[in-house]
User: Fold Serine/threonine-protein kinase, active site protein from Artemisia annua.
Amino acid sequence: MHLQRLLALVVLLAFLGPSSALNSSLCESSCGNVTITYPFGSGKGCYYSPDFRVNCNRSLHEPTLYFGNSTIVIKNLSTSTGEMEIMGLVAHDCYDRLRNSLKNNDPYLKLITSFRISTKNRFVAIGCDTYAYIHGKMGNESERSGCISSCSRYSRITNGSCSGVGCCEIAIQEGMSSFTLSANSFNKHDNITDINPCSHAFVVNEEKFKFSSTNLLDFENVKKMPMLLDWAIGMDTCEVAKRNTSTFLCKENSECDQDYGGPGYRCRCLKGYEGNPYTNCTNIDECAHPDHGCLHHCVDIPGNYTCSCRKGYSGDGRKGGSGCTAERSLLIEIAITTSATAVLILIFVTWLYLGVKKRRLMILREKFFRQNGGTMLQQRISGNGCSHDQAKVFTAEELKRATNNYEESRIIGKGGYGTVYKGVLSDNRMVAIKKAKIADQTESQIEQFINEVVILSQINHRNVVKLIGCCLETEVPLLVYEFISNGTLSDHIHNESKSLAITWDIRLRIATETAGALSYLHSAASVPIIHRDVKPMNILLDDSYIAKVADFGASRLIPMDQLELATIVQGTIGYLDPEYMQTSQLTDKSDVYSFGVVLVELLTGKKVLSFDRPENERNLGTLFLSSLKKGRLLQVLDEQLQLNEVPNEIIQVSRLAERCLHLKGDERPTMKELALELEGILASMVQKHPWVQSTSHEEETEYLLTEPMEDYGYADNANTGSSTFDSMSNNTIELIASGR
Assistant:
């Protein structure tokens, strides 16, 4: 049987219209600690309409204010916020240790038309075996919602939190005019009556309740909780209600509250006035407050105030305005004029200094631009037409902004060559900016460098890092490349945690893509290019482990009528072609040898040189060839590949590596042959293992660089046919971050 259905509020609208006269001297102004203000009242003629009638019971120990003829206790009335605080009943559902019901009630509340349940309330349920509902009505619509609270004697209950452990809560729907509460138990609090014998549910002002773990045991005797009601006058909006001047309550010194969205309307005092907006708003004497805002004299006026200054001062007199300023004497005028003149001279001198400094900087940048071959590069670009793939010439300011003034945190690589910075261009492209060390350049080297920039910027191969452009306004040129995010191949095969992710099929694909890129540089580009420093450190990987050949600082362009170049030996120990080291004759087979060492690193996971190995095994190429000859290939393969036997694909790749490492260049295959054989091995692996992903670019049969550049001239002498900027490529940059 449901008990305590005590909160029914029924309004009889059949008698009395809105009060047209108010004799405040005959009306109760308070009841206990609650102030009674119009439109509320307890006697005839003291309230606006029956909706706002209250009743003060003075027969109790303490006078108590009730809502109309109901038992609803009013704790506070506010005409400024349009709110009423009442005491609402709590729903209980209690059991003893034998699961017998001790208490169960489903209280409800029904409001009259001028009142709504405030959204500042929350529906709260307390208990460890509890589900509770609130069945609310909004106009002609009704909605049932609720929450579940559970816990055990071992649960960690957080005081102040109603997230479902010991306590749960939900928001109150806007416009709710009535509701019924229900608190229930899943298992009649079986085995937990000593810590929580009851389920409780109630609507409460969110500022008046903070959950505590003690509520689980001691809330049974709490019968009521404070909650807020919103109220307004009638059901008409301001625009409609003010047409009837006899009943419209927003009169002199008050106005309709435009921030209230209805139903009905509310009044508020005009700015500068205070009091009850439904009866009388009186002027605020701002000057009576010590913080009125005037510096000297404060003068109160209806709805506002003004400030004035003492004799001998002028201004608006306000602290936040122009204040009060002493009237100027001739001496003060002279002092102010002198100071102003001095400030103007200082500003002019500073402007002049900055202008001269800027001009000198511009002259210096123009000097560097010409010195670094900027004019020549512009001629090359204009001579080839405005192709989308031509090198872009960046200004020093653009790259300074891109690297945040070459901030140290942007450094992603350092070496003998110089420093590499991560940058963000104005179009939000991520780039790698190479800043070389200062070195003297000859006119011939500058011309070679410009030729190389133009050629390399036109290379558009999916496995070659794109050269976007350069900056020639600095003492040494800056090169701008596309940014590759996943670090170098060396990072992945020589790092124990990363190498697990580089499975054999991924390694084979990386090798195939690298071979394809080098083959393109050797034979498909308009001017053949020998990389001269092929190694895992110069093979970058994107997030999908797609290989990108990078670092062309040591590369040489080969004239079409020459097969080899005589150069100063340059590269990295362990990857250098032995024939090239002895003869200084650079050919495309020098890259083939270096690529063979890369294949061996992919197979073994070992470093090319290691003093931790025995003396006869320190060189990885020697160790690999020896193991292959002795039939001990399995023993040198990378343990991360987790092989019990050697697959045919690995044997084939090992034989390719062996051919690449021949001492004589003529006995080595070309990069084109290597690329075709690796693609064949990868294709057969895909056929045998469908899960192996191949990203080979079978459809890429054309590249953007299809025509030789007409304005390049190369001498017949092998020593003069190079187009590299040698001073910028004396050493190899080692990356110190994952990106580039």
Summary: The first helix runs from residue 215 to 218. The chain has five domains: 90-223, 238-283, 285-326, 374-482, 489-698.
